[in-house]
Amino acid sequence: MSLTDHGRVRKQQFHDRLGILHHRHLHRKLKERFPAAFNTRWTRRHWLHASLFATLGALLATIVPGFSSQLQPAAQLHATLPLQLPPLTVRAPGEGAGRLWDVVQVERGQTLGGVFDRMGVPAATMHRILDNPANREALVRLRPGAELAFELDEHGDLRGFRFDRSPTQRVELDLRGEKIHEKVLERATTTRLAVTSAEIDHSLYAAGRKAGLSPAAIAVMTDDIFKYDIDFKDVQPGDRFSAVVEETWREGERIGTGRILAATFSTDGKTYTGFRFERNGKAEYFTADGRPLKKSFIRMPIPYARLSSKFGARRHPVLGKMRMHKGVDYAAGTGTPIMAAGDARVQFVGTQRGYGNVVILDHGRGHTTLYAHMSRFGKVRKGQQVAQGTVIGYVGSTGLATGPHLHYEFRVNGVHRNPLSVTMPPPEPLKGADLAAFKAATAPTLARMESMEQLMFAHADQAKPKKNKRG
Question: What are the TM regions of this chain, as residue ranges (predicted)?
Fold first, then answer.
C-alpha cells in the first residue's frame, strides 16, 4: 500500500468515526426530547426505521444549511446581532413639534384653587396669574365642564397655562421668567339657524331644554315675546311651541344658542307668533302683521304684589281726613324692586312732601307715571332714558306712610286716571319701509317654522293612540 492509498484509508476511517459520533449524538438528542419512545423495548424493525431516519437526518444536515440548528434546545436559539442605530438626539426644553398639555375639566362645585391644588401647582402661582384683571374676570366665573390646561416641566413646575377667556378667545400664558407672557388665540366660530319645536309634557322649562334651548332663550320667550299675551302659570301639557334660534358652533361643536329670531306658542286653542326686528336700532318682537307684542305699559310695576288701596276717595290712613286717592297702593316688603311701567324719560328724582322719595317718568304723548314712598332710588337720574322694566327704585315707607308700599299714579295730560282701568295707548306699529323690510325678512323664517311644525307635530299626532268613537 502506497502512502497515498494509506492516506485515503485513514481519511475514510476518520469520516466513518465522525458518522458514528454524529449518530450517537443524534440518538442522545432524540432520547432527551422523546424519552417515552426510548423507554419502550425496540424490535429489529424499530431499529431499522430509526437507522433510516438517522441517515436521512444526517444527509439533510449536510445538504441544507442551518437544518441542524433546529435540533438544538430552545435556549440556544437566541442570538445577538449588531445593528446600526441613529445617534441619540437630546432635545432642549421648549423644543419639539408640540407642547404637552394636561387638560382638566372643572367639576361641579370645584374651585379654581381646588384645580390648581389637584395639579400640584402652588397657590402663589395661581395668584400670580390672577393679578391680571382680564384673567381674574374669566377664571373666577368658571362653570362645570370648562377646560383648563397645564404645562408642567420635569420638576412639576408650571411653565404654561391655557384657558378660554370667551367662546372665541383662547389664552395661553407662558410663566417662564419673572414676567408672564400672554398669547391670545382667536377661535373661529360660525352661526347657524336652527328650527326647534316641542310639546309640553310637564313644564315649559323641561320641554325647552329638551328641545335644545338655553335657559336664557326660554326666558326670552316668557319674559320678552309672549309675556303680554300668555300667563305661563296656566300653561298645560299638550301646549306647543316652535322657535327659530341662532346657534354658535366652534370646531364642529355647538357651544351655545343666541337670539330667538321667531317663535310661536299654541295654548288654549290659540296660536301666538312673534318675530324679531330692529326698529330705529332697537330690537323688538312683532306680530306677523307688524304690530309690537310689547305693550306700552305694564299694569303692575311690582310683580305679584298685593293691592292694598284702590283709586278714589278714601280716609287718609295718617291724616284721618277724607281725601282723593289719586293712585293705587301695592303692599310689598321694604327693598322690593320697582320697575318702570313703560319706556320713558326720567322727569324727576327726589323728595316731595307726603310722597317721600319719588320718581316721575314721562312716557310721551301726554302720559306720565309717579312712584312714591321709595326707600331708595335705583341707578337713574333726571333726563335719563329708561326702558320698560328698568328698576327705578325700591319699596319703602318714606313720607306719609304707615308701612312699606308703593303708591303708583297714572296721568294723561296732567289728569289722574285709575291705573287698573285706564285704556293704555297702543304701541306704534311698523309702517312704510320698515313694514316692507319686516315682511321680506320674516316670510322665509315663517315658512321654515311652519314646515318644522307640520313635520314634527304630524308625526307626534300619528303616534298618539286614537280614541274609540261611540256610535
Answer: 47-67
DSSP letters spanning 301-364: SSTT-EEEE-SEEEE-TTT-SEEEE-SEEEE--TT-EEE-SSSEEEEEEEEEGGGEEEEEEEEE
Domain boundaries, the chain: 102-186, 188-294+427-465, 306-417
pLDDT at 461: 55
Q: What is the pLDDT of residue 337?
A: 96
Q: Could you read off the pLDDT of 144-193 as tens digits, one per residue?
A: 888 899 998 888 889 999 998 887 888 999 999 889 999 998 878 888 88
Cell of 397: 315707607
Q: Which amino acid is at 366?
A: G
Does domain 306-417 correspond to CATH entry 1.10.490.10?
no
Alpha carbon 344 to its chain centroid, in Å, reads 37
Q: Which fold has domain 102-186?
A: Nuclear Transport Factor 2; Chain: A, (3.10.450)
Q: Mark the ranges of the chain whose per-residue pLDDT is less than 70.
A: 1-99, 314-322, 453-471
Pairing verdict, β 322-325 and 328-331: unpaired
Partners of 352 in the β-ladder: 356
Q: For residue 455, give the H/E element and its range.
A: helix 432-463
Q: What is the pTM of this model?
A: 0.56
Question: CATH number for the 188-294+427-465 domain, one of 3.10.450.350, 3.30.1050.10, 2.40.50.140, 3.40.50.300?
Answer: 3.10.450.350
Checking 311-320 for CB contacts under 8 A at 24+ apart, the result is 311/416, 311/418, 311/419, 311/420, 312/418, 316/400, 317/402, 318/400, 318/401, 318/402, 319/400
